[in-house]
Structures are given as structure tokens and as C-alpha cells.
Specification:
Shape: globular
Oligomer: single chain
Low-confidence stretches: none
Number of helices: 8
Strand content: 15-25%
């Protein structure tokens, strides 16, 4: 694997490349979900290629195309996002902390494309944002949530926050657990240097239906999803 200091700069250029026309079309009222999907596919493909990431994807038989999921995965790196787009190949929007929405150009484009801004310090507000996003995006788009709430510096699974689980229960959406291993070698949390040539192992686990748990067994649902993700990451469970 080869460290590089210019890959993040190229990623920023790619992000700007799709952000500007997205903002323009949003202002004109001509932006569509399909346009956003195509741009996100192009963007994620470019970032994966620039970082020299090799994808190893298992469990694609667990995808049901056309069904909107609450996609939940562990979180190791900012490169989890483009890797997930290329591994899942479904209409997908991300849930991100409000700090990311302070980035000029990128913030407006993210909002226009349907990305969800949440305040991790205000659980009630975060849940309201998730519910509103599901209503606005409709029944064709899945939402990705990292229930740990932040990137793991060690690769181990942290505690899961409950906001996304409330959305899945209230919205009647199945949860698609996904395990990611290897992206932290591309760009660890806190690093600004990308190491090219890593392999990202993505395991798509069978969907979990919150209806089989019910709102009174939310803790059991959280434990089931965490165990599913951990089953593909045997060294990450603690």
C-alpha cells in the first residue's frame, strides 16, 4: 500500500464537481432523485478509483432492489461512504452530523440531494430529522446510518445510538446490516493522508425486520443488529 498526500485534494475536486451543478439545478427546480443518484455513483466511483481501493463484496443476495432500507454499518473511515455506494448499488442517502454541513458548497448540495443533517447532542431533534427525511425522500431511497455515531479509531465496534432504530420501527423499514473492514487502512480517523491500495471488505447481512421486535423491545433490536454486524467482524466485538 502506498501513502499519498494528494488523494484527498482530488477527492475535494470531485466533490466540488458534483456540488456546483447540484446547487444550480436545485435553485432552478430541475434537480431530480435520478440526477442525484447518477452524480453520487460517478463521485463514489472516482473516489474509490483514486484511492486505489479494491472491493471485496459478499452477501449481495441479501439486497432487495426497490425496497428502501435503513442501512446500518460500522464506521471506520470517511471512505466508508463511497465504498458503500459502490458495494450496494442502490439509491442511498447519508445521515451526517451537523458539523459536516458547515462546509461551503458541499453543505448546500448535500441538503439539496436529500442528505440528512442531525445534531448528535439532541436525540429528539435527530429522530425528528430522520422521520422528516424518510417522508421527503419517499419509498425509493434507503438511508445510511452509522449507529456508532462516529468513526472507530481501533476497528472495534462502539455502542450503538438508538435514533436510526426509532426511524426503522416508526417507518416500517427493514434494517440492512452491513459490515465494513479495511477502509481504516485507507484513511484512519484523524488522518489527512490516504494510503492507496487497501482492500475494503464489505459484507451485506440478511435484513432484520423491526416489526418482529416491536417498540417495546428496542434494546433487543439494537443488540440483534450489532451482533449481525459483529458476526462479520469477529475481532471488532467487545
Amino acid at each position: 500500500m502506498v501513502p499519498s498526500i494528494d488523494v484527498l485534494a482530488r477527492a475535494a475536486v470531485e466533490t466540488l464537481r458534483i456540488s456546483v451543478p447540484t446547487l444550480v439545478q436545485a435553485a432552478q427546480g430541475t434537480l431530480t432523485t435520478q440526477i442525484c443518484d447518477e452524480r453520487l455513483d460517478s463521485w463514489s466511483k472516482a473516489l474509490v478509483r483514486q484511492a486505489g481501493i479494491r472491493l471485496d463484496v459478499k452477501g449481495t443476495e441479501n439486497l432487495v432492489y426497490g425496497e428502501p432500507f435503513v442501512v446500518m454499518s460500522n464506521h471506520q473511515s470517511h471512505y466508508d461512504i463511497p465504498v458503500l455506494y459502490q458495494a450496494l448499488r442502490i439509491p442511498l442517502r447519508m445521515v451526517a452530523k451537523k458539523e459536516i454541513f458547515r462546509i461551503p458548497f458541499m453543505a448546500g448540495a448535500m441538503r439539496a440531494a436529500g442528505f440528512v443533517e442531525i445534531d448528535r447532542k439532541d436525540a429528539a431533534s435527530a429522530i425528528r430529522s430522520l422521520r422528516l427525511a424518510h417522508t421527503q425522500l419517499g419509498d425509493a431511497v434507503s438511508l445510511w446510518i452509522a449507529p456508532e455515531g462516529t468513526r472507530s479509531k481501533t476497528g472495534r465496534l462502539g455502542r450503538f445510538k438508538k435514533g436510526g432504530f426509532h426511524l426503522a420501527v416508526d417507518g416500517g423499514m427493514r434494517i440492512l446490516p452491513v459490515a465494513i473492514e479495511g477502509t481504516r487502512f485507507t484513511l484512519p480517523a484523524g488522518s489527512v493522508t490516504v494510503t492507496r491500495g487497501a482492500t475494503a471488505h464489505v459484507t451485506i447481512l440478511p435484513p432484520i425486520d423491526p416489526a418482529s421486535f416491536g417498540p417495546e423491545r428496542l434494546k433487543d433490536l439494537v443488540a440483534a443488529v450489532r451482533a449481525a454486524i459483529g458476526s462479520a467482524l469477529p475481532d471488532a466485538i467487545r
